[in-house]
Amino acid sequence: MFNFKFFPALLLIGSSVQMNAQVADAGPDQELCLDHTTLQANALMPDVTGYWTLLSGNVTIADDSDPTSQLTNIYVGANTLSWTIINGTDTTTDEVSIIRYEFDPAIADAGSDQTIFTPLSTAVMQAATPWFPQVCSWTVVSGTGIITNVNDPQTSVSSLGVGENIFQWTCDDGECSVPGNLDQVTIWVETAMSVSTIEFSQPTSIWYDQTTGLLQVNSDVGIDDLTLFDGSGRRIQLPDQTNGRPMNIGSLPSGTYVVIANIDGALQTQRFIVSR
Predict the structure, then answer these.
(1) What is the pTM (predicted TM-score) of this model?
(2) In the CATH scheme, what is the homologous superfamily, with its name and number, of domain 18-100?
(3) Average pLDDT over residues 168-172
(4) What burial class does residue 264 get, using C-beta atoms within 10 Å of its C-beta: 0-12 exposed, 13-18 middle, 19+ buried?
(5) Distance of alpha carbon 271 from alpha carbon 231, whole angstroms
(6) What whole-number distance in Å separates Cα of residue 177 and Cα of residue 15?
(7) CA distance 37 to 50
(8) Residue 204's pLDDT band (boundaries 50, 70, 90)?
(9) Cα 125–127–129 angle (5° rounding)?
(10) Residue-range domain boundaries for the chain
């Protein structure tokens, strides 16, 4: 006859075996600059076996049965390995991430300064794209602006205030980060002249002729430089210009434009509309 008084003891013995089974621990995640490191999995108990498996990335494992094996030829970016422990009929697995950063990180480049004119208050950033796994982010240094996506090098910025607005593009390379790897860009928001003023009066130095599609330049003044922007503050390439010679900009799409001329060291700004 089965003696039930021994049944709890049998359960306890079985439970004790499960509780003492070794569980895999692949060790802490690592971030590094060099192409080699040492893994830090838990040491194996007697009669227990373990092995490493590369799940993603590209590395060379010196000894796939060694919990503290050397890794070499580590690929730039994210590399994931698993550490599996076999203890009798029990098998457990844990993963570890090894992230190698570019040893010579890309220098932060926030892009060129921009000028936009009211009533517009939105601009598109023009920072250089980060090198993976480099992560960069925008912050407002001075002025105002709502950043749509702080990690997007070409994000849009809205609600810009009139005057100077300075933004900073800061790049982080983890363990390889270079102190001060940042760059700043300025977005100027200027109050443009009214459209009616431009339409019904001919400026003395530069003006747009809607009929001919020509940007006229007065030959009686010395214009050192001429810059054209669209309504979003993007610079538009002008044809080679000589004082007194009109420039054909008739191919421009409909919209509001601003031309800035450097006349004998003084800046003159004119706003005009192209209508198709």
Answers:
(1) 0.52
(2) Immunoglobulins (2.60.40.10)
(3) 95
(4) exposed
(5) 10
(6) 49
(7) 19
(8) low
(9) 125
(10) 18-100, 114-190, 195-274
Which pLDDT does position 14 carry in this prediction?
42
- In DSSP terms, 170 is beta-bridged to 137, 182
Alpha carbons 106 and 181: distance in angstroms, whole number: 9
Cβ 158 vs Cβ 148: under 8 Å: yes
In the numeric block, which tokens belong to residue 163?
A: 């005057």
95 Cβ neighbours under 8 A, 6+ residues apart: 26, 55, 80, 81, 82, 83
Which residues have CB under 8 Å from 231's CB, separation 6+? 116, 117, 120, 255, 256, 257, 258
Helix/strand number for the chain, H first, E second: 2, 21
Judge whether 18-100 and 195-274 match in fold: yes
Check residue 143 and report its DSSP letter: S
Residue 79 class from Cβ within 10 Å (0-12 exposed, 13-18 middle, 19+ buried)? buried
Cβ-Cβ contacts under 8 Å for 238 (sequence gap 6 or more)? 215, 226, 227, 228, 247, 249
* 261 vs 225: CA distance, rounded Å: 6
- Cβ atoms of 81 and 70 within 8 Å: the answer is no
Burial of 204 (0-12, 13-18, 19+ CB in 10 A): exposed
Can you name the CATH fold of 195-274?
Immunoglobulin-like (2.60.40)
Residue with tokens 């599609």: 213
| Structure tokens belonging to residue 207 | 């003006």
